[in-house]
């Protein structure tokens, strides 16, 4: 079981470390606005999902309830992301004006 968890977590980390810079470079080539700036919601979602996976994988064993908890957590994040307002409707607290301030500084 440890080998399967190690392979799953290790391969997802490798994909994330490879795909993110490639997507940014592809955005530059296609003249699309793609950056590594993540909103507050995206950052919190990433840390919450990483914490939940770490907490459930910590003991090295798994059962159907832990899998159901992971699926439920991801469904909750997906529903929240669907209803989360886009950047034009966000308040400054949600991080809507941070990229504009950064561009003005440059």
Q: Summed up, what is this model?
A:
It is built from four helices and no strands. The chain has helices at 2-29, 40-57, 64-83, 98-105.
- First-residue to last-residue Cα separation: 50 Å
Percent range of helical residues: 55-70%
Strand tally, please?
0
How large is the radius of gyration? 17 Å
Unreliable spans are: none
Mean pLDDT level = 79
Order of helices and strands: HHHH
The percentage of residues in β strands lies in: under 5%
Classification by helices and strands: mainly alpha
How does the major sheet shape up?
A: none
User: What's the tally of helices?
Assistant: 4
Shape: flat
What does this protein structure show overall?
With 106 residues, this protein is an all-alpha fold. Helices cover 70% and strands 0% of the residues. It has helices at residues 2-29, 40-57, 64-83, 98-105. Helix 2 (40-57) runs antiparallel to helix 3. The longest helix has 28 residues, at 2-29. The protein starts with a helix and ends with a helix. The model has no long low-confidence stretch (mean pLDDT 79).
Write the layout of secondary structure elements.
Elements: H1 2-29, H2 40-57, H3 64-83, H4 98-105
């Amino acid at each position: 079981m440890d080998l399967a968890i190690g392979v799953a977590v290790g391969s997802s980390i490798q994909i994330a470390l490879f795909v993110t810079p490639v997507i940014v470079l592809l955005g530059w080539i296609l003249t699309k606005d793609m950056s590594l700036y993540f909103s507050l919601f995206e950052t919190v979602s990433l840390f919450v999902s990483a914490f939940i996976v770490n907490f459930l994988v910590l003991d090295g064993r798994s059962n159907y309830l832990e899998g159901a908890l992971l699926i439920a957590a991801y469904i909750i994040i997906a529903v929240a992301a669907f209803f989360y307002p886009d950047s034009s409707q966000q308040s400054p607290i949600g991080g809507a004006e941070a990229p504009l301030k950064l561009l003005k500084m440059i």
